[in-house]
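Dissemination and training. As part of the outreach component of the grant, students in the summer workshop were shown how a complex can be specified as a set of sequence lines and then modelled as a single object. The example used during the hands-on session is reproduced here so that future cohorts can follow it. Participants entered these lines:
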Amino acid sequence: MAEFAGKLAIVTGAAKSNGIGFATALLLAQKGADIVLHYNSNAAAAETAVSKLQSLGVKAISVSADAASPDFGTTIVDATLKAFPNRKIDIIINNAAAVLFASSAFDNEGFDNIFHANVRGPLLLVGAALPHMAKPGGRVISIGTVASRIGSRFAGLYAATKGALNTLTFTWAEELGPMGITANIVSPGPIGTDNVPPEEHELVKRFRSEQQIKRNGTVEEVAEVIVFIASKGSSFVTGQVVGVDGGFSHA
Ligand SMILES: NC(=O)c1ccc[n+]([C@@H]2O[C@H](COP(=O)([O-])OP(=O)(O)OC[C@H]3O[C@@H](n4cnc5c(N)ncnc54)[C@H](OP(=O)(O)O)[C@@H]3O)[C@@H](O)[C@H]2O)c1
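and obtained this result:
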């Protein structure tokens, strides 16, 4: 039997075919999980993504919601319960994020929006899903960033949102642990998606100087680690920040 057969996973920000979210949804579906694929704006991409998942023989739906909106969690959970009545939510992957590059650490434009999308959004989703999660066995996996550990003037607010998400995750680990639910961060370094700056960017030069493996990672390399953390084999792993970054020597 497939490893994730009978499991139900919510993956946010998963419509883009070249993103970490879709790579994760695809790997979970290849291993038998049913998928609630969340997207923000790109309905056509979400439709294509859901068709690909369904072609693997699993059940998959898409749901649109703005992570910065106060009803983000209830919108996704209501759609999940409607499409999958009488099922528990086994896995939540908080992958959707507003990514903001800046020229200075003091460029605070968009502060409310990015904190709402990247911090309050996951908090609302986990809160709305909690009564319906598998207990024991549930998994909450949030996608962080190496920038939350090293900081960067090019991504100050973005890095700070992910730092807050790390800390929330430590708290979730404490609060959800007695229910048998684990909470972890998978923290990528530079990964070859639409979000990574070009090789000549000062931030990427810094990455390369501090990485033991001096390149961008692939979405598949991140998805493999996320799916391990989602698996039965990770049952004693919680409250961790797992770097998938080529080994930062100074972080
Ligand atoms: N790529 C990297 O180098 C890297 C490094 C470290 C961490 N990460 C993290 O990895 C995750 C995935 O990033 P990615 O590089 O794969 O980028 P991506 O393909 O652009 O994925 C981000 C997704 O987030 C969604 N999103 C953005 N703002 C949203 C909002 N307000 N409401 C709902 N959804 C929203 C987007 O949905 P729509 O397309 O539908 O708008 C998009 O699909 C993010 O958490 C990011 O912070 C990436």
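Helices lie at 20-30, 43-54, 72-83, 111-129, 147-150, 156-176, 202-210, 219-230. Students were then asked to discuss how this feature might be tested experimentally.
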